[in-house]
Amino acid sequence: MPRILEGGLVDKGGRYAIVAGRFNEFIVEKLVAGAVGALHRHGAEDANIDLVRVPGAFELGVTCKKLADSGDYDAIIALGCVIRGGTAHFDYVAGEAAKGVAAAGMASGIPVIFGVLTTENLEQAIDRAGGKMGNKGAEAAVSAVEMVDLFRKLQ
Ligand code: INI
Predict the structure, then answer these.
(1) Residue 93 CB–ligand 1 contact under 6 Å
(2) What is the rounded CA–CA span in Å between residue 132 and residue 50?
(3) Reported pTM
(4) Cβ of 80 less than 6 Å from ligand 1
(5) Measured from the CB, is residue 37 less than 6 Å from ligand 1?
(6) CA distance 53 to 20
């Protein structure tokens, strides 16, 4: 049997920052509630969870990078919602959000979790923010707990 290195899903005092875009607030607030609820259910305490708000998904990457570099957090969870409109704006905002969040993780070496919905319409967003497709904020938070535990084992 190979040696298997993977993170568990029980939080052991990890420090988390959730960064949430205000754009499409009605949806993003459901992602935030899902993320906080999941962190609690996996053992994290409010004292170890900070919530940082930014204008929109475009601002997530640079904010995640700043928080990751602070040394105050073991994982950052980026939450936002980009809904396709009739223009190319969607592609720029969604693309930069994904690139920025990924770059923050790569540059800092800290897990930065991508919990940004990129959907064709509002219905798809509702489905993924506590509707029939689950809550992507909660899923992102569980990924953060797992990655914090994994990174402790990889040290
Ligand atoms: N921000 C979002 O988070 N979602 C969107 O759907 C969106 N749209 O469609 O424009 C959006 N735009 C704002 C953007 O994230 C920045 O806050 C803004 O451009 C200022 O830099």
Answers:
(1) yes
(2) 28
(3) 0.97
(4) yes
(5) no
(6) 5
Mutate to test the pocket of ligand 1, among 93, 121, 122, 136 (most ligand atoms within 8 A of CB): 93
* Contacts with 144 (C-beta within 8 Å, 6 or more apart), sequence order: 14, 16, 39, 75, 76, 77, 111, 113
Q: Which of 20, 103, 116, 95 is nearest to 65 (CA)?
A: 103
Q: What is the DSSP letter of 3?
A: -
- Name the DSSP class of 71: T
Contact present, 129 and 137 (Cβ < 8 Å): yes
Residue 50 has pLDDT above 70, yes or no: yes
| Active site (catalytic) residues | 89
* pLDDT tens readout for residues 57-111: 999 999 999 999 999 999 999 999 999 986 788 999 999 999 999 999 999 999 9
